[in-house]
Amino acid sequence: MSEATSLPSSAMALQGVRVLDLSRVLAGPWCTQTLADLGADVIKVERPPQRGHPGGDDTRAWGPPYLKDRNGQDSSEAAYYLGANRNKRSIAVDIASAQGQALIRALALRADVLVENYKVGDLARYGLDAATLLQLNPRLVFCSVTGFGQTGPYRDRAGYDYAVQGLGGLMSVTGEQDAQPGGGPQKVGVAVADLFTGMYATVSILAALRHRDATGQGQVVDMALLDTQVAMLANLGANYLCTGQTPRRMGNAHQNIVPYQVFQASDGHLIVAVGNDKQFAKFCEILGEPAWALDPRYATNAQRVRHRDDLVPLLAVRIAAKPRQHWLEAMEAAKVPGGAINDLAEVFEDPQVRARDMVVPMDHPLSDQLRLVASPIKLSATPVAYRLPPPLLGQHTDEVLAELGHDPTAIAAWRAAGVIA
Q1: Which of 47, 191, 344, 346 shows the smallest number of beta carbons within 10 Å?
Q2: Is 222 helix (H, G, I), strand (E, B) or coil?
Q3: Residues 20-43: tens digit of each pLDDT
Q4: Which option is the CATH number for 18-231+357-416: 3.90.1170.50, 3.40.710.10, 3.40.50.720, 3.40.50.10540?
Q5: Which InterPro entries does the record cross-reference, listed alphabetically (predicted)?
Q6: Does residue 9 sit in helix, strand or coil?
Q7: Contact 219, 212 (CB under 8 A)
Q8: What is the mean pLDDT of residues 53-63?
Q9: Largest Cα–Cα distance in the chain?
Q10: CA atoms of 48 and 57, how far apart (whole Å)
């Protein structure tokens, strides 16, 4: 690890780790926010405002909604940006300028990790590519996040989550069957290829740091959205590779488990998630049809999958006869898995979500009302800490450059020249 930083000294798992973050939008920032939550000092490098461009991470302007300022008006900070950039410090540096490149190289010399999501080859134009920076700092863990990786015929393509969900097969198994109302491919409601790539990148970086600490050698981490999307097909990918049969869209049903889907009660929807034969027997008792669990067509999950078209309509008729809460309470008492389908207002009012402190308020330079979704990581000895709100563009430029040893006169001259903001 690098020498200790000046951040608060409470015990944190990644305290002392410096991360230089040249990423923007979601996959890279999601990774670096996770590292920051765990205690790393993350310096977010953003584009200064110039030539009509407002500068900064594109997601700062991806609204509405925007954070409300103290006068109740929309601020400059979009909720999208706020959700992926806490616990970081922002510097605005023009990496197209020679002096800006020199500043980034100086920061890379002091860094443990660099995360970037430029197109393949872009950083080489500025002398900020992995080969160059690893020569300067052989202990550096250099993580590139791209749509398609550093190799292969698609390496030069821009990568976007939506396109990767389609290309990587997720949309072929998401959505109602073609013959059903509203049938056809659907994307997932959040950018899961980006988010999963961010999390895989985090795991990879931690593994590379472990190796670096043991050997003294950094390395390159090559993360691709498409690779991640293919990997996260998980059991469906395994299904295809084992059988050669292409999985089909099942709507809210499960490919390998029955009953494991949404049902309509008399007053709304609920999820039934029967995971084994014992749970199915209990569920049949709840429905008043214990004989179904003894029927050879339904007694085992394998048979229920084979006969789902017969079984599911029977279950649907019984469930539709009574209100949702009746079934949820009965299933809870019998320990049959299931649950309600909440909107986000209900999610954040849920007593379990509240008990787990999944909303964190933070002070922000523009607002007293910032609330963010908390980290799900719960560590007993080195807990996550919420030290810094998502930074304003260039909020920490002077501070970070002063840590490099630059005096206010030099910093002012660079700002006047448009190198920094």
Answers
A1: 344
A2: strand
A3: 999 999 999 999 999 999 999 999
A4: 3.40.50.10540
A5: CoA-transferase_III_domain, CoA-Trfase_fam_III, CoA-Trfase_III_dom3_sf, CoA-Trfase_III_dom_1_sf
A6: coil
A7: yes
A8: 94
A9: 84
A10: 10
What the block records as the tokens of 219 is 């390395």
Residue 324 contacts residue 267 (beta carbons within 8 Å): yes
pTM across the whole model: 0.91
Active-site residue, from 94, 112, 161, 194:
194
Reply yes or no on whether 194 is catalytic.
yes
Report the alpha-carbon distance of residue 385 to residue 381 in Å, rounded. 12
Helices and strands: H and E segment counts in the chain? 16, 13
What are the start and end residues of each CATH 3.30.1540.10 domain in the chain? Answer: 260-346
CA distance linking residue 272 with residue 259, whole number of Å: 7
Q: How many residues does the chain have?
A: 421
Helix (H) / strand (E) element for 193: namely: helix 192-215
Q: Of 300, 274, 269, which Cα lies nearest the Cα of 286?
A: 274
The Cα-based distances of 86 to 4, 57, 256, 314 in angstroms read 20, 13, 39, 49
Specify the amino acid at residue 215.
T
Please give the structure tokens belonging to residue 365: 């330079």
